[in-house]
Amino acid sequence: MTPKLIEETFPIKEISQLAVPERSSYKPIYQISKWFARRSSSMFRAIILGCVLSSNDNLMDSFYVEHNFKDLILLDPFMGGGTSIIEGLRLGIKCVGVDINPIAWFITKTEAELVDIHELGRAISECVNQIEDEIKNYYQTTCPICQGIADIIYAHWIKTVSCVRCKTQIPIFRNFIVGKILQKWFLLCPKCSFIFESEKLPSTTIECPKCFYKFNPRSGNRIGRQKVKCYQCNTHFNLLKVIKSNSIEISSEMYAIEGFCHSCFSNSNKKKLSSGLRFFKATDRDDLIRYEHAKEQWKIESSFLPWPKEKIPDGEVTKVLLNHQYLYWSDLFNERQLLALSKILGYISDISNDIIQEMFLATFINLLNHNNTFTRYSLNGQKVEGIFARHDFHPLSSFAENNVWGTKFGRGTWIKCLKRLYLGKKYNISPYNSRYEIKKGKKVAKKIFSGKIEGKLEKIPKKSILRSTNNLKLFCHDSGERIDEIAPFDLIITDPPYVDNINYSELSDFLYVWIRLVLADKYQWFKLKETPKGEEAIASKNRELNYFKKLLNIFNNVKRLMKPSGLFIFTFHHSDRDFWVQIADIILLSGFRVIKTHTIPSEARNVLNIRNKKSISFDLIIVCKIQSLDNYSEIACSEFIKQFQELYILRRKELEKANITIKDLDYLAIFAGVLMELEFKYIIKAPSGENLSHTQIWEISYNNIPQN
Fold this sequence. Notes:
It is a single chain. The chain is built from 19 helices and 27 strands. It is of the alpha+beta class. The strands form eight sheets. Strands 21-2-1-22-23-25-24 form a seven-stranded mixed sheet, sandwiched between helices. Strands 3, 4, 5, 14, 15 and 18 form a six-stranded antiparallel sheet that branches. Strands 6-7-8 form a three-stranded antiparallel sheet, with no helix packed on it.
């Protein structure tokens, strides 16, 4: 049998050039809902094509062409945000996806299903007509130029804490830089709270033009991660300790408004604004009155609006919330956010068309990500970063309250989410891949359209996808349990959790407690008050589950469903060498054999979760088949190490030739890939004649990695 292309080669250079930019800006369908650590759709399209094409074919010639591999069946036992499922459907393959997390199940379902785009457009227009004015009214301010009504883009908040000694209320500013527009900085005077412009950011002190107080705008009352300095009595104390003790009062103050005035912009007064488009100003009395009005309205309407009332469970990543005295999920929002979000969710719950309702609910997930008290403000980007910009819960001393409805500027607002929903569902009808061309010395992306994404969901669990006229089955349960599907799978392609990198269930509870308010009566897996955690395949200090035993169980389970000639491919990514050793051990114990590996950049290095960290930005694509012991041959350890070193050097040169930079711990993915390929070919003999153990092979090989 002619080997498949991915068993021998993979266009690393071409796919990495597509995949890395995509990590910063996903295809429209993947922007509808927030999910964690999505892999590139270009990479998964290439993986699937590599499993179908023969080794004599050119993958990139087929990459931009429409295909219909209707006779193939693909399984993803860790479907997550659904990338492999969506790319499989686009290639005409019948797909089966499994995930223990209800949010993952729901996101994949709403991505895959088609919707009448005209009906969706009408539903969006109806939503705007029905609730826009009411929600927008919560986010209005007075324009400092024309004194008319303007829109808030962001309201900037700071936490304050009582000094442990003199009881003075201390705003916990790290610095007094409010924002930047074009080349001008906006600074806050710590004495009189006046906000003023500066042509440059001084390195020492600057004088407030209103009260003449001199201060260093780079130096605030918060020092490092935990220390706070009282400006009144100069006492220094540990912030986290006093928060845990619950002995002092912590509150929040709105200190600045970033806004946009439609009137000034349309009447050409924009020249009076530093940016011509937006402004910064100190919070005034009217702003505080408007906020208090929203609080009062929330107090009245919260009794009948939908919002989560669940306590935050004690977990590995949620513990930090409890330590900071966040006890309920609703504590992660202020009253104005709760009011606006609940009204939008209430509107969604009344939509009679089930498909439209679920599409709105899918994009509501994105709205939650950017509208809470954990949204950090990016000075350089002049935008907010969502709560999941990092893969944890990170309490902030200052945050930017987004305009939930939205205006001309802003990120993660409801109007922006609805636009993403519309564009995402249009993508189902006409999906594309980018082809980069050089025009006039610049790299330009050209969209090449091909295929269609139409997931027709088979709703009868007992009916095999092989015999169904539908092309999609989705299960919401543990992949270690029986997967109710008798069809033998040609391909098993997945991106499993990477040991302890992301605690999916604890993070997604933040989203789950909101959308279950609409879905609990429709789907049994939304009836629980939190997402399932006991059998989730992650390593967690708070759970007894052994990640590697769990993964072995799942690998064994899916192998039973696989054709003898089928391919099992998964990606892996970790900065701990010991975890790579155990992954190789699991492959061996489950009866698979590594045929080939491919190392490819998977993370844009500027993303918040790895920025400024010594981390790994490469994924290893691991290509496996059901193992045959007949193909193993004996080799002396010295000869094995020689082959290992030669192949390792060759792989590094291939990446460097493709202009792929290898930094920090990236070498681990190359090392693990080379070693897996070789280890599954040989029985390796020690000088004494004994067979070397799996652990010994990895230790000896690691100690013999060629120096750069």
